Amino acid sequence: MIEVEGLTKLFRNGRRAEVRAVDAVSFACQPGKIYGLLGANGAGKTTALRMLATLLQPTAGAARVAGFDVRTQPGKVRARLGFLAAGTALYGRLTARETLAYFGRLNGLSDRQISTRVQKLATDLNMGDFLDRRVDTFSTGMKQKTSIARTLVHDPEVLIFDEPTLGLDVFAARAIRDSIRECRDAGKTIVYSTHVMSEVEKLCDVVGIIHRGRLVAEGTPAALKARFAADDMEEAFVSAVGNEPEVAA
Q1: Amino acid 18: pLDDT
Q2: pTM (2 decimals)?
């Protein structure tokens, strides 16, 4: 489970002015559910995700991941969390199999556990054709599948995905969505950030819309479309943020 209450992050811009990148955001995500976090570039969603992943310290507010506080128990949070950041880099000289084994060992898995997990993930994500090739020979889709598998290798109970299908073709994106559905059906807690509104309707149980650092709307996709008299989530999103683009800090 993820519980977020009043989460806030302040930065100073180049003019030393205070910028509220995330402003008193609160939401919760239950096991076996996917919470979609939507926002334009610069809205604050990636900053919020990085605080949940213990990569940034909150300025104020609180967040608990799998029952552990992100401020005071970051090690326990990381042990139970898989985080796929947008643009995650991989080691080009390793094969996909070696990459997964490396991150499996970092997360305390035995060789036997690693072998079992690698085989399952390779099957689930259709990685068999490139599992033993070097990463620096991969297409964008192959790299993203490897990054997803790396995120899942230790079978964490909580997952955070930031733009997991960005730049992928329809087949690779579909394989990744299917894998994420399987994680949800296995009872995992999932936060999913994307710009692809069709994915929101297909995957997310609850959606939060963040604009200029604040959570401005929340509900099921059906409830949000009804609230804003919208035919689809794109229309609902535009209505929720008032058709205002984000501005650079």
Answers
A1: 86
A2: 0.91
